[in-house]
Amino acid sequence: CQGNHYQYDTLRRAKHSSMMVLYHLHNPTAPAFVTTCYIxxxxxxxxxxxxxxxxxxxxxxxxxxxxxxxIDHPHKLTNHPSMADRDAQNKEARQLRVLxxxxxxDLLVHASQCRSPHCQYPNCRKVKGLxxxxx
Length: 135
Description:
Mean pLDDT: 80
CATH topology of the largest domain: Wheat Germ Agglutinin (Isolectin 2), domain 1
Low-confidence stretches: none
Number of helices: 4
GO biological process, one term: positive regulation of transcription by RNA polymerase II
Structural class: mainly alpha
GO cellular component, one term: nucleus
Protein name: histone acetyltransferase
Order of helices and strands: HEEEEHEHH
Helix content: 40-55%
Shape: elongated
């Protein structure tokens, strides 16, 4: 709540703050709070700044980073990934998990029907051993 400056000192602010808390609970992927540039004090849009991995409060906008290239800060600055980049990474990870689950399901179906003691299907013998162990 401190990062968003939610306040409960008046009824109007309490209503707004409560609605914002509910919004963020129901939309966990939405940016939780706006990051402020350490140098110029302007808000940094999601995916448009640089962050220090050592100093948790040190974020710099693209304009300030391009002016000095991060020379004024002793630690390495990393670029914030944009929401589109994160969505693409999540989509790739999801597709990889689906592929792995399909392979695992194929292996389970194969091993449950396979009668060969020297099957060359990858991991077939291991899964058949697990089936026997469970009986």
